[in-house]
Amino acid sequence: MTNSTIEQKTKESRRSSAGPSSSVSGQSNEPRPDCPLCPRLKDYRDANRAQHPHWFNSPVPSFGPADAQLLIVGLAPGLQGANRTGRPFTGDFAGDLLYGTLIELGFARGSYEARPDDGLTLVDCRIGNAVRCVPPQNKPLPAEIRTCRPFMKAAIDEMPRLRAIVMLGRVAHDSTLKTLGIRAPDAPFAHGAEHQAGSIRLFDSYHCSRYNTNTRRLTPEMFRAVFTGVRKHLG
Ligand code: SF4
């Protein structure tokens, strides 16, 4: 597919967004705290709430300003990370590399201390997840990814200045493409790959999970190179 065709499809997709159903979310584009749309994930949330009543245990909202030019899309909240703290990538291993890299490249300010009241702010950057609720074993089912996609679409549609999306891992990549109305063969996933989708530049990266970094599938240098490319693109 040519860039111009991808551009047209992206515009159509963003225009045609109906957003989440109002019967689901009330008047907001955010899922309600007890969102029932994925029964398995709701049951898991409820079980975690019973076991850890002081944890967040709800759909985790995006973090960062809606007028940012950069959106980072992860997979889903980690059990003891965002599901516990209520802020994406906060409190588990993946956050150390992500927030350290964002601070280094000027996309975040302050210090990351793995808790939502650490004062860290994002600069021209927003972080969300393809799936808002923690899945067992970090593995959402295809139906759950599909069911949560309208919330991702709503998050994208409320970003008028969006010019770059970093997709952390294949699930985030695939769901973002579907959200934007781009066919997978037109933008295949590979670490370091870039695709132009209308006015938005898409950047692929392996997920900054503990497993990927421990196995050296993703090194801090490889991760930094992705965000250096984003910084060059945004200027
Ligand atoms: S993953 Fe998304 S759609 Fe599913 S229950 Fe959570 S908020 Fe609702």
UniProtKB/TrEMBL annotation:
Keyword Nucleotidyltransferase: no
Organism expressing this protein natively: Afipia massiliensis
Superkingdom of the source species: Bacteria
Residues annotated as domain Uracil-DNA glycosylase-like: 61-227
UniProt keywords, alphabetically: 4Fe-4S, DNA damage, DNA repair, Hydrolase, Iron, Iron-sulfur, Metal-binding
Gene3D superfamilies: Uracil-DNA glycosylase-like domain (3.40.470.10)
Pfam families (alphabetical): UDG (PF03167)
SUPFAM superfamilies linked to this entry: Uracil-DNA glycosylase-like (SSF52141)
Family according to the record: Belongs to the uracil-DNA glycosylase (UDG) superfamily. Type 5 (UDGb) family.
GO BP terms, alphabetized: base-excision repair
Ranges of biased composition (kind: Low complexity): 16-28
Protein name from the UniProt record: Type-5 uracil-DNA glycosylase
UniProt-listed InterPro entries: UDG_Type-4/5 (IPR051536), UdgB-like (IPR044147), Uracil-DNA_glycosylase-like (IPR005122), Uracil-DNA_glycosylase-like_sf (IPR036895)
